[in-house]
Amino acid sequence: MQIIRSLSRLVTPRVLGLLLLTACVSVSSLAGAQAGSRSVEGRVRRPARSGGDSTGMGPTGNVWVTLHRVGKDTAGPIDSVKSDAAGRYRFRYSPFGTPDAVYFASTTYGGIAYFTAPLRSANAAGDETEITVFDTTSRAFPLSIKGRHLIVSKADSTDMRTVVEVYELSNDSLTTLVASEGAGAQPTWSAAIPAAAVDVRANEGEISPDAFASQNGRVSVFAPIAPGVKQVAFSYKLPNSSFPLRVRSDVGVVVFEVLVEEAQGTVKGQGFTAVDPVSLEGRNFRRFLSQDLKPNSDLVIELPSTGTPGRNLYIAGLLVAVGFLMMLALTRSMQKAANQRGNVAPTLRPQEPTIPLGERLAQEIAALDATYARHENRSDMVKAAYEGRRAELKAALAQALAEAGSGR
After folding, report:
1. Which of 363, 321, 328 is nearest to 255 (CA)?
2. Residue of 234, 240, 230 whose CA lies nearest to 209
3. Comparing 359 with 349, which gets the higher pLDDT?
4. What's the predicted TM-score (pTM) here?
5. Preceding amide of 47 cis, omega within 30
6. Could you tell me the maximum CA-CA distance found in the chain, to the nearest angstrom?
7. Number of C-beta neighbours around residue 37 at 10 A
8. Which of 337 and 384 is assigned the larger pLDDT?
9. What is the predicted pLDDT for the residue at 310?
């Protein structure tokens, strides 16, 4: 929970894209150098229209794969190699610096960065080192909603309520969806928000604030959405007079969760039932759930009319994370059952969205290197934005690693 709060305070909307530290650090200058060498043997794969293996996947050759290290002391790439015709790549390296550093590999395909999970083994191979990439398209297609979470706080001293919304978007295709370019660019995803919403902003999640926009009663995402599940989180404020609040779900939702920080708060709508409340840090939330919500369904959130002051939603991120894990367990169970019936294509292995926050920060650090390295005209403004973003992410990662190491 502390990690999530730290990230939400540190991440700001002045990003180039995703970062990388290019400074080289001498091993001899780092305290606590680690002995022994490690190896990484993996492959880069993508869906094959023909000639693929039993899972429908084929090799991706002749692409650059970069090995990264991110620690509390330093962060940066440590080696690069091109994949061979079979999509295979190999690294051998010696770990150095702080022992809790994270190592992982990445590649860029179709302008999109893809990553391995953090490399835990001394001789990493197999699923641990596999990188799955996808072709891209800007031709819009619908994304399914595996989970939606809506959290409503108590009214503050100005009679405003903070609302946090989190969507788990699922790209069920074999193509990464990207936003169209040029005039009238279309987002990869969009959703309606209440007309009275103010102070709309992206929150901790898997979408950069730079790829998030709000206008005319809608929020829009312009970030690429690869096959698999991606989390979109944002918040806004509503006057207490907006309640009872009617919310429409334009598309179907597998799991819809509503949390209200009011003992008298209620939610009415298709299939919504009250479940055990959540109590964290002395704050109590009533919890309502609905499953398999149909498209164009309405729900109504009824809250007491009060201006009682309340703190900001410091624990909203943790509540969402709990709901997210619940949603993923349900989704995997459904996918397993469908596969047993033979109704779906073989499951691919895109990057898991539930990796720890520190590891996600490490991945974000690695990916922005590719963007910065490809940027040919590096003006002073671009350089300043890059360096500022690097410092923020590195500080957030250092705190995440420190708190993870202390067991918090």
Report:
1. 328
2. 234
3. 359
4. 0.64
5. no
6. 66
7. 11
8. 384
9. 41
